[in-house]
Amino acid sequence: MSSEYLGEPFGESKSMYSGHNEALIQLAKGNEKVVVLYADFPQGSAGPYYKKEFPDRIYNLGIAEANMITVAAGLAEAGMIPYTHCHSIFAVGRAYNQIRQAAFDRLNVKFVLCNTGMFWTFMGGSHQVIEDIAALRALPDLALVSPSDAVEAKKAALAAAIHEGPVAIRLAEPDVPVIHKDDYPFEIGRAVTLREGADVAIISTGIMLHYSLEAAALLAKEGIEATVVNMHTIKPLDERVVIQVAEKTGAIVTAEDSNILGGLGGSIAEILSENHPLPLHRVGVRDRFGQTGEMEELAREYSLSANDIVQAAKKVIKRKAV
Amino acid sequence: MVHDTELVRKLEEKAKLLRRHSIEMIKSGGKGWIGGSFSEAEIVTSLFFHHMKHDPKNPSWPERDRLILSKAHCCEMHYAALGEAGYFSQEHFSSYGEFGGVLQAHSQRTTPGVDYSGGSLGTGLSFAVGEALAAGIGARMDPSGRRIPRYRVYCIIGDGECDEGQIWEAAMAAAHYKLDNLTTILDRNEYQSTGAVTDIMGTEPMAEKWRSFSWSVLEVNGHDISQILTALDNADRTSEKPTVIIAHTIKGKGVPSFEGRVHFAVMTDEMYAEAMAALK
Question: Model pTM?
Fold first, then answer.
């Protein structure tokens, strides 16, 4: 087991935003270029802090996501490091063009995609953006990061500040168990292997990581040893680790809270089919829109649960034996 | 303030020269946005060759005034001004529209002196709002505790472009944040890609719209250098609100056979000859 994660039982459940806001506060003091922008989005602890200490570095642009994102691009042109905050559906959906323009210019904007993926539980299908990974992955020069817990969300926001260029950070809404230790070294583009096993590899991103680790523990009880990779950066994707675990295990399951079409599953399938074809099963949203529900209800309905990952692992192991 | 007639005459000559550069560029590239480039000629000239604080030898000088050309398809006039000012060699004019050239079909930040890559209409004003906000961040304060912005931002938008909702999102934000270091020049040439602005989407009453968005509104003849310079000075002196200068212009101004009708055109030999004769 990697020393980078707490191991099981997991830590307490926490919101990714708590980690993200801690990072913004830390950055406020340490980096005078950091500016925070909101499209009428809750500001958490960062809001009152900036308003009190750095009032000229916080702006609420109202319910106008497209404008906010291009305003951020203008700030970045002038040397600032803006972090934009809005619901992911409205960043990816309404302001795709504006994100694209910032990426085209490699401007130093950090797009925080709030409440992304299938697990914006209460809000339902109109708000659950399942196409975020596919849409953003197709943009050259944009880094796409998908943290799995509060610790990683904090590290992702800190790392984004020193990454020269546009970065999108996916944050999911539900509180999730803390998986990582505080001193875990996070680097954009470097996948982390949390657990080693020779039978199958689970490559997971974002909020699916705790399900993936839970699945590995369930598999272990049945004598199946799984590798678990935390693919926290979807782009640039750590292809080296993908090929490495493919060679080692010969069977792969991917896990994401987004559409598998063009998502993490799509990316891994592309790499494997070109480099190392092997049995692959993609756990993720299978090209359907979402609906209102509790996290566990949604996980069951859309086959995103730990049990779904277990079944997928067994399936690919079986296929590898043929 | 009344401007020196000699200055105005020199700038008028400069505008004519920029038109000639644009025509040469469009001839080399085979096609281009003659109409909207020519309607903005006096505006661009007044900004680059008199009003704006900038240094062609130091294009990334942090305290330079910014020009955001939101109607970035009308880049030929922008390129002409940049080349004439010395941001890059005028030899590049002939590579406009060429594969691998410095001068892309829409102005782009990879060209020296260009701060904003356009092409998607309606977004430049938001970019200008970001630039204008940045000018005040961490800047020194006046005795009343207000930040003194380090530079001014000028944003040229088109009237057809005002169909885009984001223009009005940006207009609200600029007024909300009292961005008095932001001057927008609206090139009111009355025509857009497929016809008259008024036929395609009613944008009148234009001045009232901006006024109701809490902007200071000035109207000028956009081909009268003296009026443009005075309006730019007045905008600089306006406090607590952004200014829009509605510049009434003529598409293709400067070449009688182009005026009022040419938007995007393939440059024929005949058109080239007419243009060069008119711009002597």
Answer: 0.97
